[in-house]
Every structure is written in structure tokens, then in C-alpha cells.
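STRUCTURE:
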């Protein structure tokens, strides 16, 4: 009986060892370098905490594939010049919504087209690329062209940006955006904090935008709306050849 139990245990361990890392780590942090070349592989990263680097190996059409945001990334997301098209995300109360929910690192060389975020909730941090950059982070977005639409119907507070929803919380964080385009239509309520690049930056945080362009319209439906072309709190924004159309 003991020998049979031991044999079954060894067989179970062998099967688990043969499973892909993304399956074995479904309830834990993924680490290391990850290559993504299909919609299924990208969707599999949804809800995951990732420490490492993600690299796209092909253009990816997400129009027929559901996905939740990558929960957090501490590392680099390298688009390698590839395009993610048709990504559709749903906002949730008290959450971070974007391709990457929370970023402590960088996103480079990525193009996104026809992306959308709907269902924005109360205190939702939402950006097509990144929902939230946490306190203490020094992050970077470079050589990215992001196109899509964010629609908010919530009358509660939400932080919404074309690229990034919110930077920082209660201590310093910094973000550098270089050589990037935000072509994101923002349709928001008067109670939302809205910016073409970044929705809102906390007082102790800083954004540097160099050679960046905002093409998408920024629309707030009330006369007392908190909306800005580049960043809702533009006194924290250092511009180097950045403009809004």
C-alpha cells in the first residue's frame, strides 16, 4: 500500500513538472523572460503578477479573445515593433485597468490599435497601456503608439489617461514618456480626472514627456470637469517637444 502511494505521488510530481510555467504558477508570481506570439498566450498573462520581461514575437489580434489586465509587471514589456489590435478591457471598482494594471518598469516599442476600456468604476485607475504606477517607482514608456477609446459613465471619482491612469499614491514616483503618441478618445464624466497622456499625478510625483503627441479628443461632460490635454495636473509635467493636437 505504501509503495503504491509513493508511486502515485511520484507520478503526480512528474506530471506537474511537465506543465508549462504559466500553468504551474497560475496562483503565484511568474518570473523570468516570457515570449508572447499569440492571442492565447497574451490572454494567459491576465491576472498575473510578473517579475521579469515580456517580449512580443508577432502581431496579435485580440478582437476575438477576452482578456483581463496583467495584474502587475516589475520589468520590461517590449513590443519589439509589433502591434496589439482590438484589445477590449472592462473597468472595475477600486482596480487598475490597462494592458498592464500596475507597472514598475518600462513599456517600449509597442503599437496598439482599436483598444477599448468600458465599465469604468469608482476609484478605477484606467489607461490603455497602464492603469497605475505605484509609489517609489521610476518607470518609462518609450517608442509607443497607442490608439483606442476609453468611455466612462461613472459619476464617481476615477483616474483616466490615454496611456496611464494614475501615477503615485502617497510618496514619490516618476514617469518618463518619450517618442510616443496617444491617439485615444476619452469620453468621461465631470467627476473623473482625465488627461491625454496621464489621468492624474500625485503631488510628490513627476512626469517628463519628450517628443510626445496627443491626438485623441479629451471630453468631459460637465463644466466643472477635471480634464487636461496632457496631464490633469500639468504643473507636475515637464515638457520637451511634447504637444497636443
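SEQUENCE:
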Amino acid at each position: 500500500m505504501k509503495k503504491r502511494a509513493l508511486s502515485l505521488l511520484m507520478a503526480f510530481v512528474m506530471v506537474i513538472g511537465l506543465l508549462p510555467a504559466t500553468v504551474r504558477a497560475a496562483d503565484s508570481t511568474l518570473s523570468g523572460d516570457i515570449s508572447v506570439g499569440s492571442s492565447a498566450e497574451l490572454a494567459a498573462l491576465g491576472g498575473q503578477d510578473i517579475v521579469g520581461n515580456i517580449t512580443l514575437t508577432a502581431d496579435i489580434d485580440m478582437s476575438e479573445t477576452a482578456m483581463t489586465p496583467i495584474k502587475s509587471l516589475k520589468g520590461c514589456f517590449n513590443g519589439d515593433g509589433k502591434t496589439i489590435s482590438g484589445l477590449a478591457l472592462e473597468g472595475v471598482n477600486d482596480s487598475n485597468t490597462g494592458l498592464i494594471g500596475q507597472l514598475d518598469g518600462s513599456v517600449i516599442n509597442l503599437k496598439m490599435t482599436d483598444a477599448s476600456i468600458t465599465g469604468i468604476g469608482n476609484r478605477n485607475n484606467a489607461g490603455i497601456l497602464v492603469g497605475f504606477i505605484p509609489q517609489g517607482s521610476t518607470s518609462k514608456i518609450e517608442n509607443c503608439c497607442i490608439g483606442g477609446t476609453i468611455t466612462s459613465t461613472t459619476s464617481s471619482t476615477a483616474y483616466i489617461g490615454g496611456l496611464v491612469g494614475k501615477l503615485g499614491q502617497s510618496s514619490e514616483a516618476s514617469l518618463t514618456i518619450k517618442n510616443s503618441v496617444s491617439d485615444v478618445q476619452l469620453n468621461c464624466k465631470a467627476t473623473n480626472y482625465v488627461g491625454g497622456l496621464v489621468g492624474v499625478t500625485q503631488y510628490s510625483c513627476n512626469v517628463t514627456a519628450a517628443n510626445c503627441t496627443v491626438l485623441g479628443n479629451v471630453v468631459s461632460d460637465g463644466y466643472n470637469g477635471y480634464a487636461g490635454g496632457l496631464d490633469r495636473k500639468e504643473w507636475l509635467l515637464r515638457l520637451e517637444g511634447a504637444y497636443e493636437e
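REMARK: The CA atoms of residues 174 and 206 lie 5 Å apart.
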